[in-house]
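User: For my dataset I need records formatted as: sequence, then structure tokens, nothing else. Please produce one.
Assistant:
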Amino acid sequence: MEDLATAAASQKKAKSLIRRFGLAFIFVIAALIPELFVVKHFFPYPFLFLFFGAVMASAWFGGMTAGLFAVVLSILAVDYLFIPPLNSFVINAAAGIYLAAFVVCALVASWVSSSKKKSEEALKETRDQLEMLVTERTSALMKTEAELARLSRILSMGELTASIAHEIKQPLTALVTNGHACLEWLSASPPNLEKARQTAERIIQDGTRAGTVLSRIRALFKKEPPAKDWLDMNEVIQELMVLLRAESQRLHVSMRTELTHSLPKVKGDRVQLQQVVLNLMMNGIDAMTSMNGLSKELVVRSWKQSANEIGVGIEDNGVGLSAEITEKIFDPFFTTKSQGIGMGLSISRSIIESHEGKLWASARPSGGTIFQFTVPIQSQDSNG
């Protein structure tokens, strides 16, 4: 079997060599005929450029070996038919220099053509390999893209679940807290019906707020625009101060407001903006829970930022934020709380930005953190 394979390879190599030498012979004959019967009659001195073309074509299509064979054939033809004495291979001194120059030029032409052909073939092979590699990588990228799309859907579901959990947690927690308070007022002797009635009203408000949050989430799935209406941010803040009063007293946190009177109304989603302020206030209270024996104070401010926007700030004297944490605090799933899910501030910033405002955090000079956001003022006349 090995002998047969060797014989077949030798036969194939011989056929290739014959083919290349045949091409070289044909190219030289193709140059010789017009040189001999046409060009020779117009130029008194041998004009041999067609032979250079034959040499270059032979080297291009047949390789260096065919090019050298074409050089030998061209030298014999030029010496015998074009350089005196004609029809003889004798070379005189005068014609020897010319023939030597022709030989050198023919060899150079053969080498240049052969090298150029090899470069072209190498370039073609490299291009083919590159195309194959690109095809393979494209296929791999398409698979990766499909996998990333699947992972993105999974992460989106996780993020949505975290968002819903965060949005619903606060009103449900308030419901439970007010429920316990209502039972305590009713269990008193005699029962404090007025306090129980007020607590029941807050329970209704919290239940309504939880239902409204779910309605907002359902509207999000239906791609409905948020329900924006004219509202007074001072009223929103005062409502939340009442809501968090029991929680702040339980944690020994004093709360106070510094609200600018006659604050212009803004057009926004009341529940969403209420969720933002509530989340920032709860974060401020949480930041002060570990400060045993120290005074804890939460300050909520409002002001007219400029002729075109109002500002709201929530300030605490808790543990504060480092520069590194300040840069990441609004990133989804980033949290400094042991039981946090890291969605509150991310959602809050998205809400404020959807209202064309801006939310940011900064360190409080005397210790603690300041969260501030701005909301643009719109003309009630121009918006109906």
